[in-house]
Amino acid sequence: MRIVLALGGNALLARGQALTAENQRDNIKKAAASIAAIAKEHEIVVVHGNGPQVGLLMEQNSAYQEYSPETTPYPMDVLGSQTCGMVGYMLQQELRNIDRKLSIATLVTQTEVSKEDPAFANPTKFVGPVYTEERAKEIMAASDKVFKADGEYFRRVVPSPMPKDIVELPQIETLLTAGNLVVACGGGGVPVCFDDNRTSSGVECVIDKDLTAELLAEKINADLFIILTDGSIYRNFGKEDQAEMKQATPAGLAEFNFPAGSMGPKVDAVCKFVNSGRGDAAIGSLFELDRITRNEAGTLITKGEGIIYY
């Protein structure tokens, strides 16, 4: 099968965990082990998140500017490309450490967005480390940064426009066809826009990696699109009557409201892929990836009427 994996930020850095290279390396080793276990049998493209990593670089930019006021902070598209190289390098290295027969390629990928996207008027994408509510309000009072609640913590939010196209799509297809496990569209891809002459320029935003992964899955005609996160889709998650959904259809999932800041975009992405008619989709735990590919774990989303199986 040709599979697109959307690797959640929790697979790279746990919530509240210190933003160190050592912590990221340890988490990526675990992620690599799960991916390597299915890589021999399938064509794989990995799309990873980069929220904590971009946020850290933004904080470092800000700190350095205090030391050197004449230094202009790097824009978010440049920071995004830096994280693609950093995370891709670690994934390549740890995947090959597990299986030296794997051919792995990381591609810094540009994703086209529209400057007219309404997301620019309402920042919603979480980036960077977590803060207490008190500290977040202090930062907002002293800058133009916007923070919103993310669970019990607060994090900075930036615009998150819809992905329109993937610039390096032919290169991804070429690498796959040549037998490579491909790491691409990291962080949703480096956001760019085109003028009337098709000249590109970077955009100050972050694209939702699940939506870019879904677009990529459509473009390369994937057989299966998997979003790897904390676990399956649940009905009434966190309540006494919560129930794990084993199998569902887009029509069935449409009967529920999922939180916009967590499961909502993931459900939208998998439903969009299934509705495209190209294949099935799934949401589940990174550490059950091999079982997800065999429909033994996670939530499988397939075409059909409004059906939910628990």
UniProtKB/TrEMBL annotation:
Gene Ontology BP, a term: L-arginine deiminase pathway
Keyword annotations from UniProtKB, A to Z: Kinase, Transferase
GO cellular component terms attached to this protein's record: cytosol
GO MF, one example: carbamate kinase activity
One Pfam family recorded for the sequence: AA_kinase
Aspartate/glutamate/uridylate kinase domain location: 1-282
Family to which this protein belongs: Belongs to the carbamate kinase family.
Annotated protein name in UniProt: Carbamate kinase
